[in-house]
Amino acid sequence: MIGKTLSLQSLSKRFERTVAVEGVSFDIAAGEFVSVLGPSGSGKTTLLTMIAGFEAPSSGRISIGGQDITGAAPNRRNIGMVFQKYALFPHMTVHQNVAFPLRMRRVDRLAIRDRVRMILELVQLVGFDHRYPNQLSGGQQQRVAVARALVCEPPVLLMDEPLGALDKNLREAMQLEIKRIQSKLGATVIYVTHDQDEAMTLSDRVAIMSGGTLVQLGAPADIYQRPCSPFVAQFVGKMNFINGECQRDEAGTCHIRISDRITIPAPSPSLSGAGHLQRGRAVKLAVRPESLSFAPPDSATAIPGHIDAEIFVGAFRVYLVRLATIGQPIVQVQLPASTSAGPFRRGERVDLFAFKEAFHVFAAPEA
Ligand SMILES: Nc1ncnc2c1ncn2[C@@H]1O[C@H](COP(=O)(O)OP(=O)(O)OP(=O)(O)O)[C@@H](O)[C@H]1O
Ligand SMILES: [Mg+2]
């Protein structure tokens, strides 16, 4: 089976006064794996149900493999879907649930038996064939739903938090399985998750939604290293925001002043968005905890502060640092657990450093 391209054009959905999805457009290549991340209520499920055909869009178009399917019935779209709430048939056993899409396609009985057994092995549910959904745990129900979506090897697969109820180990094992099956089939996948690590690990590209709109779409590293807005910056990974002001030197280059004595040379405008900022404009200087350290990389500017707390988090240590300038927030610094820095006393004076490329500059909201 070969995946198909999927194209969304200005897709919107209104429920009376709620705008659930607004003007979402993007193309997914055949065989591509795209994750959708976004806060609760940002329109992720609504987007998937429109693609699957369970909700009609208020406006916009959906096409698969170049064919417009905006008005097609769900069973005519050849899409596999795992719903957020499992949606198993309660009166059918595990076996019957998984066999259902094959029966609809009139696959013969022996072939059904073999395919169901194979897929149940894959999701580690052999021996559960005759149970009903209400006799299964949440995680087991989720795995039945995944098996049912995969059994027909659909060219397009939509998954709405398919592993949400699983514990860490099973979840990671299932992630690998889903990825393995997806690349084996070459299926095109849209995968909704709340788990950023999961999105980063599985995906070719990640789509970030907020308030019904698509705010950024890019490769995992792009989203992480070049967030397009403060929202994306703080939503994906951890981010410190330091208040500053744009200053321009004689050459017109923007530098960010964070106190009377400290000015950070702005990174290249293409990286940071600083190119468009007016002189005197209030900005948020964003820098990730792992980009900060207590040791100067070459000639970076020191930002003075005082240690507020030190937290051991297994693989790394997090230091909360109160910046010396009044009106600045507490900043997190993340170092490997094996760091030779510290131990520090509470209140001890430290200097923070980062490569200037690690800073992002965003215009602060106008007061
Ligand atoms: N059938 C409906 N009728 C009215 N409003 C709806 C309906 N379905 C969804 N909404 C609203 O549309 C918005 C988007 O909902 P949606 O379920 O798509 O969000 P989500 O991103 O999947 O959230 P979650 O992460 O919590 O699952 C929400 O404000 C929700 O209340
Ligand atoms: Mg949802």
Automatic annotation (TrEMBL):
Gene3D superfamilies tied to this protein: 2.40.50.100, P-loop containing nucleotide triphosphate hydrolases (3.40.50.300)
SUPFAM superfamilies named among the record's database cross-references: MOP-like, P-loop containing nucleoside triphosphate hydrolases
Organism per entry: Mesorhizobium qingshengii
Keyword Nucleotide-binding: yes
Domain of life: Bacteria
Family: Belongs to the ABC transporter superfamily.
GO molecular function, one term: ATP binding
Keywords linked to the UniProt accession: ATP-binding, Nucleotide-binding, Transport
Ranges for domain ABC transporter: 6-236
Protein name: Mannopine transport system ATP-binding protein
A Gene Ontology biological process term: quaternary ammonium group transport
InterPro entries: AAA+_ATPase, ABC_SmlMolc_Importer, ABC_transporter-like_ATP-bd, ABC_transporter-like_CS, Mo/tungstate-bd_C_term_dom, P-loop_NTPase, Transp-assoc_OB_typ2
GO CC annotations on file: ATP-binding cassette (ABC) transporter complex
Range of residues in the leader sequence: none
A Pfam family: TOBE_2
